[in-house]
Amino acid sequence: MTNRNQALGEIRSLIETHHISQAEILTLFTPSANEESGSGGLLQRVMIYIGGAFIFMGLCVYIGMIWDDLDPLSRVIISLGSGFVSFILGLFCLGDQRYTKAATPLFLIAAGLQPLGLFVFMDEYLPHTGDVVKAASVVFAFMTIQQAVAFIATQRTSLLFFGLFYFYSFLFTLLNLCEIDAPEGPMAIALTGLMVSWGIAQTQHKSIAPFYFFWASLLTAAASFDFLKDTSLDVLLVGVSAGLIYLSVVAASRTVLTVGVLSLLAFLGYFTEEYFSDMVGWPIAMIVMGFIMIGVSVFAVKLGKKIATHDV
Questions:
Q1: Could you tell me which residue, 249 or 224, shows the higher pLDDT?
Q2: How far apart are CA 228 and CA 226, in angstroms?
Q3: Where are the alpha helices (DSSP H) in 156-253?
Q4: Closest of 195, 172, 258, 174 to residue 221, by C-alpha
Q5: What is the pLDDT of residues 82-94, one digit of tens each?
Q6: Within a domain: residue 306?
Q7: Cβ-based neighbours of 126, under 8 Å, separated by 6 or more
Q8: Residue 292: what are its φ and ψ, rounded to 5°?
Q9: How far apart are CA 293 and CA 267, in angstroms?
Q10: Is the dihedral of CA 243, 246, 251, 252 positive or negative?
Q11: Cβ neighbours around 37 below 10 Å, total
């Protein structure tokens, strides 16, 4: 008993000397990510996601089966109500360590049902103006605010993902309302998307950055092609691809690298067909294009290996 008391006294002395907090001590007795994975944590997470998908699909099928038999209030409750309840349950799950992993599937269900429910509410209770874009902008604005507030309060990565998704959906509808069409509208969304993705990649929520990097860089390439095709400045398309490849190195993103390389190959194919197909014959041009593809792919593989250690 004396040895035990001495040991506890030494531990207490070390804690006071090095100013170790209670939370830091508890981490010593918390299973690591590898231990959780080895003990079935990964299987549990997969089962939770699959269960969430079954719940969502079950709700959708059930709603579809009884939809015509429901009155307006019931339709709103079963769509918007189910989504809002799922959202609240997800927030409650974050308050209990035992149910934290169930929060993301619940947020996923809420992210799908709440916009649907808002559209149903407007269809059932508000005057029909026929302006779908305006209605969509209201729905996406509400969802953006909800997800943003919840993310600020909880710092949950899934909420940031959905918040950005609805923000860009709102931005798309807003540009339509302002009659800013392609390619100006998509280019504005693409450039802001690249900047936001780069910012996210520097935070603890970087796991969602590849998704937004992919769509932002793809939209950048597509909008640039709409801007420059059939103009005297179409050679700048190569510069757009080079810019994406340079960004991939700076941001350490193989996602952007992939889109940059694919866009470069697509632009080279456009140049080949536009300017060189009648000059040396299309078959020869295709052979040349094949060698160019091989060379670019080798370069892309080497570049990808260099940034693999801190991939985004």
A1: 224
A2: 6
A3: 157-177, 184-201, 209-228, 236-250
A4: 258
A5: 899 999 999 999 8
A6: yes
A7: none
A8: -65, -40
A9: 12
A10: positive
A11: 14
Query: How many separate domains does the chain show?
Result: 1
Distance in angstroms between the alpha carbons of the first and the last residue of the chain = 54
Query: Helix crossing, 132-154 with 157-177: angle to 10°?
Result: 150
What pLDDT score was predicted for residue 163?
A: 95
Write the pLDDT tens digit of every residue in 39-67: 456 676 677 777 767 877 887 787 788 88
Q: Looking at the domain assignment, is residue 238 inside a domain?
A: yes
Q: Crossing angle, helix 209-228 and helix 236-250, to 10 degrees?
A: 170
Nearest residue to 169 (alpha-carbon basis) of 119, 221, 241 = 119
Residue with tokens 């900047």: 195
Please give the structure tokens belonging to residue 201: 């990649």
> What is the residue whose two structure tokens read 């992993």?
101
Contact 78, 131 (CB under 8 A): no
Residues near 36 by beta carbon (within 8 Å), at least 6 away in sequence = 42
Task: For the beta carbon of residue 267, count every other beta carbon within 10 angstroms.
Answer: 23
What is the span of the domain harbouring residue 258?
202-312
Exposed/middle/buried for residue 141 (C-beta within 10 Å: 0-12, 13-18, 19+): middle
Stated pTM of the model: 0.75
What tens digit of pLDDT does each residue of 104-160 get? Answer: 888 988 998 899 999 999 999 888 888 888 999 999 999 999 999 999 999 999 999
Q: At what angle do helices 132-154 and 82-94 cross, to 10 degrees?
A: 20
- Residue 263 within any structural domain of the chain: yes
Q: Is residue 27 part of a domain?
A: no
Dist. CA 163–CA 111, nearest whole Å: 9
